[in-house]
Amino acid sequence: MEWRNHGKSSKAKQKFNFETIAKYDISSTFNFLFNTIKLKSLDCITHSAGGIVLTMFLINNPNYNSKINSITLFGVQAFGASKNLRNKIKILISKYLTATLGKVPSKSAGSTEHGESYYTMKQWFDWNLKKNFIGENGFDYLKMMNTIKTPILSICAKGDNFIAPKEGCQKFIDAFENEQNKLIFFSKENGNLEDYNHSRIIKSKNSKKEIWPIVEKWIYEKS
């Protein structure tokens, strides 16, 4: 599924945030996949905010949980980036700089191509500063994450220390409370090819060489 304002998608005229994507875009995508082309099941691979909005969607639409064989998260966390005072200050500064600029530049957003608006990213900043996962209407997504029982593989790396640090990814996957779930941390210290950053963890020659085979095996075992 292509994120709004990315790639060949038409440009959104109205402001949108994570919940907009979760409640409308993913809903339309799943409706097409299951009700139009009649898929019986699927495996989900997500990166960054994609994993967050998929989580929000499945909490709001539990009828789809049984149709998903497995989920893979690349650099996904929502409320654990402020692991220490230094990171919290960086997030706070980033929030106010973004508010001033009106957007997060593509490089700062962990993308090689697309930035995000402040309106879109404000939820992420607030979740990590407050260490919660609260929706616009006060809905507590964190408390409901354990309703998703699909097996989840979380991929994180040492070089992704601001957007999706290991500690944040661990807190996110632990919130599902599922013993089948697994987190894998990549770093040179662990014998891996590089300390992947937020974009290279999913899109690089080294990722293709050593990470994607693990994901492929995970999907095969869970399907």
Summarize the structure.
The protein has helices at residues 18-36, 49-60, 85-101, 118-130, 141-144, 166-174, 205-210, 212-222, and strands at residues 42-47, 68-74, 103-104, 116-117, 152-157, 182-186. With 223 residues, it is of the alpha/beta class.
Q: What are the salient characteristics of this protein?
A:
223 residues; alpha/beta; Rossmann fold; 4-stranded parallel sheet; two-stranded antiparallel ribbon; 8 helices; 6 strands
Major β-sheet strand ordering: 1-2-5-6
The CATH architecture assignment of the domain at 18-78 and 141-222 turns out to be 3-Layer(aba) Sandwich
Radius of gyration over C-alpha positions, nearest whole angstrom: 17 Å
The run of helices and strands is HEHEHEEHHEHEHH
The residue fraction in helices comes out at: 40-55%
Q: Which superfamily, in CATH terms, is the homologous superfamily of the domain at 18-78 and 141-222? A: Alpha/Beta hydrolase fold, catalytic domain
Q: Which range does the strand content fall in?
A: 5-15%
Structural commentary:
The chain is of the alpha/beta class. It is built from eight helices and six strands, in the order H-E-H-E-H-E-E-H-H-E-H-E-H-H. The chain has helices at residues 18-36, 49-60, 85-101, 118-130, 141-144, 166-174, 205-210, 212-222, and strands spanning 42-47, 68-74, 103-104, 116-117, 152-157, 182-186. The protein has a four-stranded parallel beta sheet, sandwiched between helices. A two-stranded antiparallel ribbon has the order 3-4. Helix 1 (18-36) crosses helix 2 and helix 3 packs antiparallel against helix 4 (118-130). The longest helix has 19 residues, at 18-36. The model is unreliable at 108-112 (pLDDT under 50).
